[in-house]
Amino acid sequence: MALKSTIFKAELQLADLDRSHFGDYTLTIARHPSETDERMMVRLLAFALNASETLTFGRGLSATEDEADLQELDPTGSVERWIDVGLPDEKAIRRACNRSRHVMVLSYGGRSAEIWWQQTQGKVSGQKNLRVLSLSVEEGKALASLAARGMRLQCTIQDGVIWLGGDQEHVELAPRVLFDSESA
Fold first, then answer.
1. Which of 92, 43, 94 is nearest to 71 (CA)?
2. I want to staple 63 with a disulfide (CB 3.0 to 4.6 A). Which of 6, 14, 67, 100 is the partner?
3. From the CB of residue 5, how many other CB atoms can be counted at a distance below 10 Å?
């Protein structure tokens, strides 16, 4: 018998001063049985960094590699924004860049993420619509500590620094920009 996803609910109050985007979002996040709290919360962070009314979560780890962790479609059904978390291979990144106007990868995992980027960087550096961010091991653990089945979170983003938390705990995150084709 296959294990079912665990459903998490999040109420997110967002103040993204970098994008002048403010909003309240009620999110339902399905955590696959093999997904960690850290990965799920990195997906939630990716949502906060790119929040819009049309940004949606993908089916997660059980999906095919042809589906983003989060995506935003334009009114014609074309992919406007493709977001992956973790350490996707360069073929998946190039495929996403060919399908979408904007692609973001939010990596985490410490040394394994550093090795992944060293191996991947040269193979994707020609992409014109790619942004790659990285969280430290400490930031990933701090995010995981916020995970709860019912979350009420406030998030403020300013100058690339993120403050995220609820009533009990807050974390400060500063994802490192590994690659940004728009500022290159």
1. 43
2. 67
3. 15
Q: Which two tokens stand for residue 56?
A: 């949606």
Q: At what angle do helices 90-99 and 111-124 cross, to 10 degrees?
A: 50
Q: Which residues fall within 8 angstroms of residue 22, CB to CB, at 6 or more apart?
A: 14, 15, 16
**Pairing verdict, β 161-165 and 150-158:** antiparallel
Name the residue with tokens 């992919």: 79
DSSP secondary-structure letter at 67?
A: S
CA distances from 94 to 8, 79, 127, 161, 184 (A): 31, 14, 7, 28, 18
70 close to 58: Cβ distance less than 8 angstroms? yes
One DSSP character per residue, 153-169 reads: EEEEEETTEEEEE-SS-
Tell me the residue ranges of DSSP E strands in the chain.
6-16, 21-31, 55-57, 70-73, 79-85, 100-107, 130-134, 150-158, 161-165, 170-173, 176-180
pTM across the whole model: 0.93
25, 12 Cβ separation under 8 angstroms? yes
Q: What is the pLDDT of residues 67-105, one digit of tens each?
A: 899 999 999 989 999 999 999 999 999 999 999 999 999
